[in-house]
Design brief:
The complex is a heterodimer of chains A (156) and B (432). Chain A is of the alpha+beta class and 156 residues long. Chain A is 32% helix and 12% strand. The longest helix of chain A is centred in the middle third of the chain and has 11 residues, at 47-57. Chain A is elongated. Chain B has helices spanning 33-40, 64-77, 91-103, 117-126, 133-139, 150-153, 156-163, 206-218, 233-245, 255-258, 264-280, 297-308, 328-333, 347-350, 353-360, 373-377, 418-431, and strands at 3-4, 16-20, 25-29, 52-55, 58-61, 81-85, 107-110, 142-146, 177-182, 197-200, 248-253, 285-290, 314-317, 320-322, 339-343, 364-368, 380-383, 393-396, 402-405. Classes of the chains: A alpha+beta (156), B alpha/beta (432).
Chain lengths: 156, 432
């Protein structure tokens, strides 16, 4: 949101993205550069915003960032809420729909499982933040609903 | 892969996957931290493996023969024994324990007395609507946590009742409203959504809130504008609206409501309030779940009610039940006993200091599977197999649903189950 404020907000589609919002999200993840937004360079009225945005991003601009989901082993008590709420788990492991533990060995799409009383992240490849399209990409349920605040979504 | 019930707490999740090689448990999948600790007890240093008796003030290993003989001796020499515990054993053992109490003219009571047992007793006057976890998953649209720290005491409870998707509640979390009434900002506050209601009540003001809600049920607009018990007018209106418009609500009461010793009026008035709301609205209802801690706390209530007709303060004399107004606390306080048999619990560390001192002054026979403060000061310690892993049986879940436990491993040193051990004591008593 912070980055979006500085963009032209005209949704001109010249950068190839459908909206300025989508451009801001990709900018945050390092997929595009500020210079990809052509109106910034061409039109003089955006000069000030452009400079401020450049300053805000600083040296981190353009570096490709990777999604990471951290589970704090100290805080986690294995309640399994992340297993139940994760939409990818729900699609591929039907028992999790009614709050049950998923089957073992885990299905290849499964993101979370509870083992030895702690939450374990199996693979991140199929996370909605990487695979889904549109608004589904902004999924954050595991972080939002963790009662112990043990799950953290981060880009590094 | 086979799924077994876990005996870590009273929720008894029946979906735990355990991989074992027949001797040890390799992996526990699906259990929370509490359940995992329960399975870890198998190999822990805290495990009791041999019977012990106290001689010349020192607790020492002994043979089963000696330990049982000393047990019989203590029981024979006492005229007023006290039996306590039974919330961590299966129902079969509880049945045997009542038989034993009848035989030795004892006073028998369970942990349920100072927890959820009194709700069932109150309900004899006011009536109660109970529900099951499955029904909550499939139908509930309102969940009230009243003095219940669900996220920390029973970790998977919120997962099951709030986040899971059921038959008529396919969207799960989105369609269920959560209301938390608690004086402390507990961990459950972290799962709050936009529509939910977090009410931080002032300590010891529950009764005020309940009375006000009852009044509001009879006469509209009687909420004082400055609010009650630290909750403002607007939130109170929302609370009452949620309660009276819920299609299928559930009130989960925890230790905050159940534990305060003198305030049994809170439970009575809460039950009356829920009955009032249920009578007033036609299309829906509110029901109760009592959140006990130990895995078979509800079991003793059922066993005692079906065999004796009441669920607490069972005093026997000449094989018959006699009237008694004492409960376990007043009984120990008056020192109205001359020996105690403690099964599967640790009153020495749970009870207040002056009570545990009085309890420790008389001979104690401790029956348990792990070392505790009680087994350290006991005169006879009899080890048993762990219920739910080394022995099966029937136990009652917190919503009063019977669940069958399974045996997955053999006990070490051929330890007897609680039921077998009580049976052996009964046999020996019959012979002598």
């Amino acid at each position: 949101m912070e980055l979006y404020k500085y963009l032209p907000k005209t949704n001109c589609k010249k950068c190839g993205k459908p909206t300025c919002m989508a451009f801001a999200l990709d900018l945050l993840q390092g997929k595009v550069k500020v210079d990809d937004c052509t109106p910034f360079l061409e039109e003089a009225k955006y000069k000030k915003q452009y400079n401020e945005l450049k300053q805000l991003l600083g040296a981190e601009e353009g570096k490709k960032k990777e999604l990471r989901i951290d589970v704090d082993e100290e805080l986690c008590d294995g309640c399994g809420i992340c297993v139940t709420v994760c939409p990818v788990n729900a699609r591929y492991c039907p028992p999790t729909l009614s709050g049950k533990a998923p089957d073992y060995p885990p299905e290849k799409h499964q993101l979370f499982q509870i083992k030895a009383g702690k939450c374990e992240l199996l693979n991140i490849k199929h996370c909605r933040r990487l695979e889904a399209e549109g608004r589904e990409r902004e999924c954050r349920v595991c972080e939002t609903y963790c009662p112990r605040k043990a799950v953290k979504i981060d880009y590094v | 892969m086979e799924r077994i019930p876990c005996t870590g707490c009273s929720l008894l999740c029946d979906d735990i996957i355990v991989r074992s090689d027949g001797l040890f448990i390799d992996e526990v999948i699906g259990a929370c931290l509490k359940g995992k600790e329960r399975f870890d007890q198998l190999t822990s240093n805290n495990r009791l493996l041999n019977p012990m008796i106290r001689e010349n003030g020192v607790l020492e290993k002994s043979s089963w023969e000696d330990a049982l003989n000393k047990t019989i001796n203590i029981i024979k020499n006492s005229s007023n024994p006290l039996l306590y515990g039974f919330s961590n054993v299966n129902c079969e053992a509880q049945l045997k324990a009542i038989e034993l109490a009848r035989k030795i003219d004892g006073f028998i009571d369970s942990n349920s007395t100072i927890c959820q047992g009194k709700v069932l007793n109150m309900a004899k006057d006011t009536g109660i609507t109970l529900t099951t976890i499955t029904e909550v998953i499939n139908k509930a649209d309102l969940i009230v946590l009243w003095g219940a720290n669900a996220a920390e005491s029973i970790p998977r409870l919120l997962n099951k009742v709030l986040f899971s998707r059921g038959k008529f509640r396919m969207t799960g979390r989105e369609i269920k409203t959560l209301i938390i009434i608690d004086p402390v900002k507990i961990a459950s506050f972290n799962v709050m959504g936009v529509r939910d209601l977090a009410l931080q009540i002032q300590p010891n003001k529950d009764l005020e809130l309940i009375r006000m809600l009852k009044e509001e049920c009879c006469v509209a607009d009687s909420i004082p504008s400055e609010g009650v018990a630290g909750i403002d007018n607007y939130d109170l209106k929302r609370l009452l609206l949620h309660l009276s418009e819920a299609e299928n609500g559930v009130v989960i009461v925890g230790q905050g409501i159940l534990q305060p010793q003198s305030e049994s009026t809170i439970i009575r008035e809460l039950l009356e309030l829920i009955q009032m709301i249920n009578l007033k609205q036609q299309k829906g209802r509110i029901s109760f779940i009592m959140m006990g801690g130990h895995f078979n706390m509800a079991g003793f209530d059922h066993i005692a009610l079906s065999t004796c007709g009441k669920n607490e303060n069972l005093k026997f004399k000449n094989n018959e039940l006699v009237e008694s107004n004492d409960n376990i606390v007043s009984k120990i306080n008056k020192e109205d006993f001359d020996c105690s048999i403690i099964v599967g619990t640790d009153p020495i560390s749970h009870l207040p200091h002056n009570l545990s001192q009085k309890l420790a002054s008389k001979p104690i026979i401790a029956i348990d599977n792990r070392k505790s403060a009680t087994t350290l000061i006991a005169d006879v310690v009899l080890p048993t197999a762990i219920t739910g892993i080394e022995t099966g049986g029937i136990v009652y879940r917190l919503d009063h649903v019977p669940i069958e436990l399974k045996t997955i491993l053999k006990p070490p040193n051929n330890l007897p189950s609680d039921e077998d051990l009580l049976n052996q004591i009964l046999d020996k008593l019959n012979k002598t």
